[in-house]
Design brief:
By secondary structure, the chain is α/β, with parallel strands linked by helices. The chain has one domain: Leucine-rich repeat, LRR (right-handed beta-alpha superhelix), CATH 3.80.10. Helices cover 35% and strands 17% of the residues. The protein contains seven helices and six strands. It has a six-stranded parallel β-sheet. The chain is globular and about 50 Å long.
Length: 194
């Protein structure tokens, strides 16, 4: 789905065959949470989830985007709870961009379902505050034990709050995370790190 603001899935309990879901746009996280709340069986069935909310990727006007994106910390916590319940999820493509910097997506690492085999994660520079936790988990064999591929990156280009030194430091931390992950999982394929 694209440009999905305000779309609701009714009647509930009619999505029993849903295995793959893609939602693009600035209301996608809330829409995903609402869909799962109205159709609880989805969290046990969904195998592939693609949530992208980055105005640069989707060619949105950034001013219009920022006006439309209003997620409270409650909404974000509810999203995290819902994602953690996706017990059949094998592939997650999560792109978090263009959201206000005070939106707290920190801690998303802790709730990723252990059944994940393929992870693509793109985030805002503010997510770099989570990198020490990502690094710690990278050497833990219990964290995402079935992971086969990963693509991980933080958007440090053009961030108004970052200077060149900060951007380089974040990119070095990302490389360290990926190096640690690959040294503990020789079978893991790293798709890219940009």
């Amino acid at each position: 789905m694209d440009h999905c603001c305000g779309v609701e899935f009714s009647p509930p309990d009619k999505l029993n065959a849903l295995r793959h879901l893609t939602i693009l746009g600035n209301d996608n996280l809330d829409m995903f949470t609402t869909l799962c709340c109205q159709n609880p069986a989805v969290t046990g069935l969904l195998q592939t989830l693609d949530l992208q909310c980055d105005p640069k990727i989707l060619n949105y006007d950034i001013q219009e985007w920022n006006y439309d994106v209003e997620m409270s910390n409650y909404d974000i916590e509810k999203f995290k709870e819902t994602l953690a319940q996706c017990t059949a999820l094998r592939s997650l493509h999560l792109v978090l961009g263009g959201l206000d910097s005070d939106c707290s997506f920190l801690g998303v690492i802790c709730i990723l379902p252990n059944c994940l085999e393929h992870l693509t994660y793109r985030g805002m520079p503010e997510i770099s505050k989570d990198l020490p936790q990502w690094l710690k988990l990278a050497s833990d064999p219990e964290w995402l034990p079935q992971l086969k591929t990963i693509s991980f990156g933080l958007d440090v280009s053009g961030g108004p709050s970052l200077n060149a030194e900060e951007s380089v430091a974040i990119l070095e931390q990302v490389e360290e995370f990926l190096d640690t992950l690959s040294s503990h999982r020789p079978y893991l394929h790293i798709l890219d790190s940009t």
